[in-house]
Amino acid sequence: DTAVSQTPKYLVTQMGNDKSIKCEQNLGHDTMYWYKQDSKKFLKIMFSYNNKELIINETVPNRFSPKSPDKAHLNLHINSLELGDSAVYFCASSLSSGNFYEQYFGPGTRLTVT
Amino acid sequence: GQSLEQPSEVTAVEGAIVQINCTYQTSGFYGLSWYQQHDGGAPTFLSYNALDGLEETGRFSSFLSRSDSYGYLLLQELQMKDSASYFCAVGAMDSWGKLQFGAGTQVVVTP
pLDDT tens digits for A86-101? Predict the structure, then answer.
């Protein structure tokens, strides 16, 4: 009965590689988000989708490309990984874009780029 | 622009009360949320204030004063399991749908 799930939980890869992180929510929510949390625990939004449509696209390198095949899934693909991409990436969801103040987070994906 | 300030760390003993303050400068302020995050875990929603006043949820309460651009999270009857980071986060009309998180307050509960 997991609410928001992400795979993989850990990802260790070399610079220059391409990798993807997958997220699924079974809460019936319309809105999903990707966040990056750095080593100082600063949590910053990257993207948000509402019913498969991109509604928030922060200043993020275009090596990062989100995709939402349906409103229950939001994936993040990262090209040409760099050392600075090492962080924990969280997926989250909310009932709607108007309920953005109450978000439910997945367990996170710890990405380490070597 | 937006800015959020909260203390970096607070230490207290079991059974005590802790207040975590959050001041903000936010154009088009909409509301203030609080999240808890244990080490290695995911942020968990605690509370939300859009109007002035106190919201109580069990041992945790959250307060907002829009005129003072200030809010706080009150943790009562502290337990060891309350050791975690606590984040305030603001939403604004100018950036609808987006939460801006503070840097977090590490709460350390000692026996």
Answer: 999 999 999 999 999 9
Residue count of chain A: 114
Express as a percent the part of chain B with pLDDT over 70.
99
Amino acid at B45: F
Q: How far is B46 from chain A (nearest CA, A)?
A: 9
Give the residue from A41, A88, A97 with the most B CB atoms within 10 Å of its CB, the best one to mutate: A41
SS3 B93: helix
> Do B66 and B52 form a contact (C-beta atoms < 8 A)?
yes
CB neighbours of A40 closer than 8 A, spacing ≥ 6? B103
What the block records as the tokens of A34 is 């990707």
The terminus-to-terminus CA distance of chain A in angstroms comes to 35
**CA distance to partner chain B, nearest, from residue A9 (Å):** 11
Residues A46 and B111: their CA atoms lie apart, in Å, by: 39
What one-character DSSP code corresponds to residue A6? Answer: E
| Each residue's pLDDT tens digit, B57-78 | 899 999 999 999 999 999 999 9
Q: Indicate yes or no: CB of B97 within 8 angstroms of CB of A100.
A: yes
